[in-house]
Specification:
It contains 11 helices and 2 strands. The protein is elongated. It is mostly helical. It has a two-stranded antiparallel ribbon with strand order 1-2. Helix 1 crosses helix 2 and helix 8 packs across helix 10.
Length: 337
């Protein structure tokens, strides 16, 4: 009884948004969680404040032009309400409509608003999620503290991190940048070190080397037969500019790793030689260990007034004269002083 072949391991996927394209292919897209969305909000709030400041300045200039009889408290209050609606509702709706579902904060963080089916977000959906957000989430005009707690609880409990506005409007916030683990490329292949050392790599240009480098960094994500087809195509191009050809019997991925490892070694050696030449020609530009501080010695001063007499040993101090009204001081007491 033969054991059926085991299917190839599925490449690591970061997608958890559950989006499916029109061709019934699951998209590798991550759903945005509470942390990234709060960060985007912290960037959007200063932008909204700047928009509110610009509108208030424009309104102030308009009041100076209008006749005095037309400017009253009702007009100022009405314009203030309109400006508040424009800042809190119009800003996200216009940004999502004309910037592919992204506000300024979402662009900076790498987020995007889409429909739950993966389609671009519509105006109705953007308006719905903005109105719900202003009413019960941020700034939360209806019971601010309670609505904030409810909004955070909903985002933490939803498996795709959606807030109340997303649930009502049928939208989802996803990441537009792919997070992939870093996998270093092998720097050398022991079995091909001798051949790589003598190979001529002068015709290997930077573009082809970068393509091979990216393939080796993501080879674990490719499934067969795409992995073998990509390796064969890259090695065909590399083998056309590398002489002599390596010994047979190994996979094309190993050959690519050996070529890139040797190229990296030669680049490092060339860089080291360039730095040595620069250090020889311009030593002042090369950082080195700090030099010890010079020791400064002072020569004894020479006087020309006359011969210098040898110093005589000091004897015991002479007793001081007694001061009227005080007892005389004995020599041993003076020595202690």
């Amino acid at each position: 009884m033969t054991t059926p072949p085991r299917p190839p391991a599925r490449p690591t996927s970061w997608g958890d948004a559950g989006l499916v394209s029109g061709e019934a292919v699951e998209l590798d897209v991550r759903a945005a969680r509470l942390g990234s969305r709060v960060l985007a909000l912290l960037i959007d709030v200063p932008v909204q404040l700047a928009v509110a400041l610009a509108l208030s300045m424009a309104a102030g200039l308009a009041f100076t032009v209008l006749p005095v009889g037309l400017v009253d408290g009702a007009l100022a209050g009405g314009l203030g309400t309109v400006g508040l609606v424009v800042v809190l509702v119009g800003y996200p709706v216009l940004c999502e409509r004309f910037n592919q579902g992204r506000t300024v904060g979402k662009v900076a963080v790498g987020l995007r608003v889409v429909s739950v089916d993966g389609a671009p977000v519509g105006v109705r959906q953007s308006l719905t999620r903005a109105l719900v957000g202003v009413a019960v989430e941020w700034p939360g005009l209806v019971l601010p503290l309670l609505s904030w707690v409810a909004g955070v609880t909903v985002m933490l409990s939803d498996r795709r991190g959606r807030r109340l506005g997303d649930l009502v409007a049928g939208t989802l916030v996803v990441h537009t940048r792919t997070a992939t683990p870093w996998r270093p490329v092998p720097t050398a292949v022991p079995a091909l070190v001798g051949w790589a050392y003598t190979a001529d790599l002068s015709r290997l240009d930077d573009g082809l080397a970068l393509a091979a480098r990216q393939y080796l960094a993501r080879v674990h994500q490719f499934a067969e037969p795409a992995r073998t087809r990509l390796a064969h195509g890259l090695w065909t191009e590399v083998a056309a500019v590398v002489t002599p050809l390596p010994p047979a019997g190994m996979s094309e991925t190993v050959y690519l790793a050996a070529v890139l490892g040797e190229r990296h070694r030669r680049d490092g050696h060339r860089l080291g030689r360039g730095r040595a030449v620069a250090a020889t020609l311009w030593p002042e530009l090369t950082p080195g260990p700090a030099a010890p501080a010079p020791v400064v010695t002072t020569a004894p001063a020479v006087t020309t007034a006359g011969p210098v007499r040898p110093a005589t040993p000091a004897g015991p101090p002479a007793p001081r004269a007694a001061t009227p009204g005080l007892p005389p001081v004995r020599p041993e007491v003076a020595d202690r002083r």
